Amino acid sequence: MNQVFVRPERCTGCRSCEFACAVQHSKDKTLLSALLQHPPPQKRLFVEQTDDLRMPILCRHCEDAPCMRACISGCLYRDEKGFVRRRKERCIGCWSCIMVCPFGVITRDRYNHIAVKCDRCHKLDVPACVNACPTGALVLKEVDELPKEKRKALMLKAAIGEV
Amino acid sequence: MRYLILGFSIAGVSAARQIRHHYPDAEISAVSEEREVPYYRPLIPYLTEGREIDLSFPDDPVNTLGVSITHGRVKALRSDEKRVFLEDGTTLEYDRLLIATGARPVIPPIPGVDSPGVFTLRSIEDALRIRKFSEGRDNALVIGGGLVGIKAAVSLRQRGMNVTLVEILEEVLTGRLDRKGAGMIKEALQKEGIQVRTSETVEEIYPGNEGIRGAKLSSGEINAEMAVIATGVRPSVDFLRDSQVNINKGILVAEDLSTNVEGVYAAGDVVELKEPLSGEHRVSGLWTMAEEMGRVAGKNMVGQRATFSGFLSVMNATEILGIPFISVGLIEGEDLETHVIEHPEGYRRLLFRDNSLVGVVLFGDVRRAGLYTSLIRNQIGLNALREKLLTGKLTYADVIGGGVR
Amino acid sequence: MQRSMDRGTLEVLSAAPIPGLKTVWDRYEAQLPQCGFGEAGLCCRHCMQGPCRISPFEDGPQIGVCGANADVMVARGIMRAIAAGTASHGGHAKHMAHTLLRAARGEAPDYSVADETKLKTVAERLGIAQDGKSANELAEAVARAALEEFSEKESPLLWAVKTVTEGRIEKFRKLGIVPTGIDSSVAEAMHRSTYGVDSDPVNILLGAVKCAIADYTACHIATDMADILFGTPSPLKTSANLGVLRKDAVNVAVHGHNPLLSEMVVKAAEAPEMIEKARKAGAEGGINVVGICCTGNEVMMRHRIPLATSSVSQETALMTGAVDAMVVDYQCVMPGLAAISECLHTTIVTTMPIAKIPGAVHVEFTEEEALSKAKEILEVAIEAFQKRDPSKVKIPEVTSEAFAGFSTEAIVYALSLLNKEDPLKVLIDQIVEGNIYGICLFAGCNTVKVPQDANYLKMIETLVKRNVLVLATGCASGAFARHGFMTPEATKEYASDGLKAVLTAVGEAAGLGGPLPLVLHMGSCVDNSRAVDVAVAVANRLGTDLDKLPVVASAPEPVTEKAIAIGTWAVASGLPTHVGVVPPVIGSKLVTQVLTEGIKDLLGGYFIVEPDPEKAADRLLLAIGERRKALGLNV
């Protein structure tokens, strides 16, 4: 499995990742159509700034994902690649996931009354945000170097809903 | 090792997941009064409404975890014999027991409350009965203005009924939302066409031919063909009256969720425990808490060490008639430093004690609520974060500050 | 993505003698994906409280620090782009006017009035009394009149009001967008778009159109000055594509825009002593001047100088290893050239004080010593030639024949051979008959965002099948030239019967012994003014206005701010104007709506934004059809 890592020291706050994210999650996935789409597509990561830091905050697809645990409708699940995703049709807009996500990266789709979160662009090799980052603040790294044993244990955990 | 779980809703399921994880060969059984378990209980008001909705767990825990379920009602526990007796005479033996029997609706002592046409809303069965009964009927009375009462009222209203919601206290959602938000929800309910009567009691329910014909309220009589009682729940502990297990309102547990009886654990709505923030003993009634408790109990039952910390009796997220709100922790308290910050979509209510956040209400805009929850549950010292909280600018970047991982 | 449709370009890119050189396409790929805010026009750096960006989606700020919303931001951005385009054409035109003035006063001896007829035509148009004036005196008066157009006058720009229809002027007046100075229009646009000035998006757009009309004025002045100094083009035959480079000669590529430089380089290259120097250095074939980009168009149509390639592929000329010197002035000269020349023997020669490139040799070109400077430049080229490594030379064997030089005057002359009294009637009759369904002017550039030439090739195919007469300028003409569309053979092959018949009749009357080429080459990008002249002549002859004519324009692969300015004045002229690359305006629904629809009610012209070339051709045909219908012509 590969993970998106953030290197805040490289982030210029350009928000290209946010833009690319919104476009990637639009109907036709082109800028033009995304701009014309209503309701507009929503981004799933957020460039934030503190006094001495700028960085994109994005879903970590936590190993022990609070959002998945808090979900009261069976919407959130971990897919075969290890990404925490939605079964959109099951979301009833209770916002329990928003209540417990310690990163604050799940948001409301106020038109469809469902939760919106990063799906790690599961159909793409490289997520749109990483691809859009002009400075390498977002990087995709393989974490498959984990020992086989540990991976096996992880997979078992995933099978029983632990991960 | 034989593991027995009484009640197989989310607390029981998450305990079973732990047990199965550690012991692929363990014998896991469960007892449930409900045939449909496990299911997403919080969704039952949608069934009442008539929405096509799948309440089942997509991963089918009963089969994937290999849990053998006995359907029935528990009559008694004899911990000295390590046996559980069901009302139908069945006896079950265990080595480790988890009590996760949840809670039952409280039925207030109103004359006529046992009439046909008076329902509670706690199970799939309840929800479907209400739905069926409401067909062809026009007027409904909902007693209790908590979350269940409001959801029942809204779902019946969606079905086209005239709904009167009666709440004994001054505001709806007491304990789940502060007065300001409660007032706004009340307004929204009334705008939706629901008669909301606060500071009102139901003095009598009049039985009718099929169902009821009305009720006497403190302010006068109303017509209603059915009523839904939603005046709260209490832990299902009746079967423990003669057991060795310590009970107050609910089962008293240590932080590893063990009871005073060896080998017996408890988790979920049936548990009563001390809430660190308020210092009081409380019962949770929250799905998220039940899930966590089940996990912790399950780990301890297989000999892993785990503790349940950060218990909160208020940790609610919902949306009522398009208004989202999230309440976490202590949401009222005269001794707490309280700030209410209004914004175009609603407001943020923040409650501080010393250098930490102890409660929050995010009303209308629930963005980044999890950051607040995390600050409250973990009682993180705020320092510079306090200003960010007040301005509503708090993000995860602030939480990690300079120390980025 | 495929980079080009041009065989010459592709051959160099796939098998350059020195591998690993990075071109515009590599740099583009390195930029991908590009910033969405920029693409949508939703970023602003006009003040230091910024930069501000507006989210086109709902979950972000909807206004900048100053309070400007998406509409204001996009409108200001487009106005500034037009101002930059106008400043460029203005600089070019002013440079020419100054030179004409100096030439007239004898201060620039290498330049002189080459076309007195044109000089007189221009003077007459401007209302300058000609009686008794010598050519130089008249030239001085015309040059002064031109120079007066730059700073703010109390009266409208002469080149604007005297070269368009009455109807246009009336419309401009009503909207308050008649410019009174070229440079002052640029200044005004910059002023209006700076922090806290014009915040009404529609008013800003009108200001932008006003600036674009100033740009038109500049273009027209540039064309007129060039014709006066170097002659009005008439049809001639030359060739195009990288195959025009020669192994046996010192290859000098002129690149940029202003013929003031390229004309002198061509002249110097004809000087026997320079040819001799080249031969002595080992170049048996002497000196071979080739053109790139618009200055290439200028010398192509006046001196048969072959066109090596177009702007976007300028680097490929160097990569053949055969170019000894690339002589540049300004505009569209990529800084990336220097990095490539470092790996080759080629010397980049910059010539203008306002346009230097680190890594290039700078020979400052002055009008006073024009020819000697040009010779000095050629010496640099000859020196570089001696360092050329023949084993590192690979010239694609790709050339196309091309007929160039269809100035307005040349077209009218050709038509006059069929009807001496009323040449335009020939054209009008054919339009009425439907043998010419409409006229389409192709202008603009090549862009890395489209496989080079792809949009041109697709569109022309559709249009000429429907009897659309095609004119081309700038790198649009480069595209058609390199693909062999500026030939009589192309007419025979691609034109449908009506168009073929017309082109054949005119061509035969003009003594070409066959049809006119399928695409009529009108010149460089400033020469878009020539196409307006043709349309204005037709409109005046019919007593109507430009926005009634079945004439459209298209920039299928635009790049520059100049292209935005030209596109905007084409719209102001009343033409439906297609752009094939989505411009940075789509972040504002209002601005997009005004430019593509609303403006039609005000000026008759409007933008058609359509990246798909087939759909674009269809939409242009529809626009032509709509106008034909309104004129009562068959559709």
Name the biggest interface.
A-B, 42 and 48 residues
Regarding quaternary structure, what we see is: heterotrimer
Across the major sheet of chain A, the strand order is 1-8
**How many strands in all of chain A?**
8
Distance from first to last alpha carbon of chain B: 42 Å
Please write the CATH class name of chain A.
Alpha Beta
Query: Tell me, what's the shape of chain B?
Result: globular
What is the H/E order of chain A? EHHEEHEEHEEHEH
Radius of gyration of chain B: 22 Å
Instruction: Let me know the largest β-sheet of chain B.
Output: 5 strands, parallel
Compact description:
The complex is a heterotrimer of chains A (163), B (405) and C (635). Chain A is built from 6 helices and 8 strands; from the N terminus they run E-H-H-E-E-H-E-E-H-E-E-H-E-H.
Question: How is this structure best described in words?
Answer:
The complex is a heterotrimer of chains A (163), B (405) and C (635). Helix content of chain A is 26%, strand content 20%. With 163 residues, chain A is an alpha+beta fold. In chain A, the strands form four sheets. In chain A, strands 1-8 form a two-stranded antiparallel ribbon. A two-stranded antiparallel ribbon of chain A has the order 2-3. In chain A, a hairpin with a 4-residue loop joins strand 6 and strand 7 (114-116). The model of chain A has no long low-confidence stretch (mean pLDDT 87). Chain B is an alpha/beta fold and 405 residues long. In chain B, strands 3-2-1-7-19 form a five-stranded parallel β-sheet. Chain B has a five-stranded parallel β-sheet with strand order 9-16-10-11-12. In chain B, helix 1 (10-22) packs parallel to helix 7 (287-301). Chain C has three domains: 70-230, Substrate Binding Domain Of Dnak, Chain:A, Domain 2 (Up-down Bundle), CATH 1.20.1270; 242-392, 3-Layer(aba) Sandwich (Rossmann fold); 403-630, Rossmann fold, CATH 3.40.50. Helix content of chain C is 50%, strand content 11%. At the A-B interface, strand 2, strand 3, helix 3 and helix 4 of A face helix 1, helix 7, strand 22, strand 23 and helix 8 of B.
List the helices and strands and how they pair.
The complex is a heterotrimer of chains A (163), B (405) and C (635).
Chain A: E1 2-6, H1 16-24, H2 31-36, E2 46-50, E3 53-57, H3 66-70, E4 76-78, E5 84-86, H4 96-100, E6 107-109, E7 114-116, H5 128-132, E8 138-142, H6 148-159
Antiparallel strand pairs in A: 1-8, 2-3, 4-5, 6-7
Chain B: E1 2-6, H1 10-22, E2 27-32, H2 44-49, H3 61-64, E3 67-71, E4 74-78, E5 83-86, E6 91-93, E7 96-99, E8 103-105, E9 118-120, H4 124-134, E10 139-143, H5 147-158, E11 162-166, H6 179-191, E12 195-197, E13 202-207, E14 212-217, E15 220-223, E16 226-229, E17 233-235, E18 251-252, E19 264-266, E20 271-275, E21 280-283, H7 287-301, E22 315-320, E23 323-329, E24 337-343, E25 346-353, E26 356-363, H8 369-378, H9 385-391, H10 396-400
Parallel strand pairs in B: 1-2, 1-7, 2-3, 7-19, 9-16, 10-11, 10-16, 11-12, 18-20
Antiparallel strand pairs in B: 4-5, 5-6, 8-17, 13-14, 14-15, 20-21, 22-23, 23-26, 24-25, 25-26
Helix pairs in contact in B: 1-7
Chain C: H1 7-14, H2 24-31, H3 36-40, E1 43-44, E2 52-53, H4 70-104, H5 116-126, H6 135-148, H7 158-161, H8 166-175, H9 182-192, H10 201-230, E3 236-240, E4 250-255, H11 259-270, H12 272-280, E5 287-292, H13 293-303, E6 307-309, H14 314-319, E7 323-328, H15 336-342, E8 347-350, E9 361-362, H16 370-385, E10 400-404, H17 408-416, H18 423-433, E11 438-442, H19 454-465, E12 468-473, H20 474-482, H21 488-494, H22 497-509, E13 519-523, H23 528-542, E14 551-555, H24 561-572, E15 576-579, H25 589-603, E16 606-609, H26 613-630
Parallel strand pairs in C: 4-5, 4-7, 5-6, 7-8, 8-9, 11-12, 11-14, 12-13, 14-15, 15-16
Antiparallel strand pairs in C: 1-2, 3-10
Helix pairs in contact in C: 4-6, 4-9, 4-10, 4-24, 5-6, 5-10, 9-10, 10-24, 11-13, 11-16, 17-18, 18-23, 19-26
